[in-house]
Amino acid sequence: MSQRPEAPKTALKIHRLHATKRPKRAEAEAAVRTLIRWAGDDPDREGLAGTPARVARSFEEFFSGYGEDPVELLQRTFEETGGYDEMVVLRDIRFESHCEHHLAPIIGRAHIAYLPRSRVVGISKLARVLEVYSRRMQIQEKLTAQVANTIEQVLQPKGVAVVIDAAHQCMTTRGVHKPGMSMVTSRMLGAFRTDPATRREFLAIIASPSTTQLGNV
Ligand SMILES: [Zn+2]
Question: From ligand 1's centre to the CA of 100, what distance in Å?
Answer without folding.
Answer: 6
